[in-house]
Design goal:
Blueprint lengths: L1 H9 L2 E2 L4 H9 L3 H7 L12 E5 L21 E7 L8 E5 L12 E4 L1 H9 L4 E3 L2 H6 L18 H8 L3 E7 L4 E2 L2 H10 L9 E2 L6 E2 L8 E8 L3 E12 L26 H10 L6 H7 L1
Parallel strand pairs: 1-3, 7-12
Antiparallel strand pairs: 2-3, 4-5, 4-6, 8-10, 9-11, 11-12
Length: 290
């Protein structure tokens, strides 16, 4: 079987242009090379299909008498289609577990065949959306096993991204103030993040100033996402003055350096958040590089 397959490929002459011809040429090997690579007793299973047509038509011959032998021109083919590069239709699957960025349990989604098989079906995160499975999983949303599913496909990713940010609160250096939700909301907006005040939870203890001892110190703010998920965000105090001469020098890339906590009870959680960010520079790392 191997020899006949190789001989058939060796006799196949393709007249095509571009990458299609090069792809075919790389897949056709002489019999000697194939036998050297493939052990005895094994055979090739080709998963590729090429649609070809003859370049020259075969002439008709009489019903009686000897059949005309094929000439060299009869073995010239043109490439019609290489199914390897054909665009494959998406596959419909039913999610049996929440998949970040795709959907929640019970959602019917369309994905590429490769992703469906390797990332959803094999890990057990989804099943094919066949008529039988559609009926079987029709009441999946109402079961008690999925009460803790994310509020949206991107809720977990949003919480993860927020937890790596450092929000700088610019507070007045002269006038008295106390940190309120609207201060934090404005600081988030300056960082390009729109958060409503009702979604922000500040520490129970008040933070008042101006107090230069709080400069570059951190505290935790909890952000509610879709009234369900919650993300802890590091917020940092920065005293600001209208007079340029009185301003504290700006520390470049301050978000990459760790800071002292305002409240000691938040130190452990703030350190965990800092370690989530791969760009954070810790004092021991800076000493090692010096």
């Amino acid at each position: 079987m191997l020899r006949s397959l190789a001989q058939g490929l060796a006799q196949l002459h393709l007249h095509s242009t571009g990458s299609a011809l090069s792809r075919v040429a790389t897949r056709t090997l002489p019999v000697q090379e194939l036998e050297a690579v493939i052990p005895a007793g094994y055979f090739i299973q080709a998963r590729t299909t090429f649609v070809l047509k003859r370049k020259k038509k075969v002439e008709l011959h009489k019903t009686t008498g000897k059949m005309r032998p094929f000439r060299a021109r009869h073995y010239l083919y043109e490439m019609v289609e290489d199914t390897n590069v054909r665009k494959k239709d998406p596959v419909k699957v039913i999610l049996t577990k929440p998949v970040e960025g795709l959907g929640s349990v019970g959602d019917v989604v369309e994905v590429k065949p490769h992703r469906a098989r390797n990332h959803l079906l094999l890990p057990g995160l989804a099943v094919y959306a066949s008529p039988e499975n559609l009926e079987k999983y029709s009441n999946l949303i109402e079961t008690s096993e999925i009460k803790d599913q994310p509020s949206s496909p991107f809720a977990l990713r949003t919480a993860e991204q927020l937890s790596t940010r450092v929000i700088s609160l610019s507070m007045n250096m002269k006038n008295p103030w106390q940190v309120e939700p609207w201060h934090v909301r404005v600081a988030f907006r300056k960082a390009g993040i729109i958060v409503p005040e009702e979604a922000l939870t500040l520490p129970a203890k008040p933070i008042t100033g101006p107090d230069l001892d709080l400069q570059d110190k951190e505290f935790l703010v909890k952000v509610k996402i879709n009234d369900k998920e919650e993300a802890n965000v590091r917020c940092r105090i920065n005293h600001y003055s209208v007079n340029p001469r009185e301003r504290i020098p700006w520390k470049a890339f301050h978000w990459e350096h760790v800071a002292e906590p305002i409240f000691p009870e938040e130190a452990e959680e703030l350190d965990a958040l800092a370690r989530k960010n791969r760009h954070t520079r810790f004092p021991e790392q800076e000493e090692a590089t010096m």
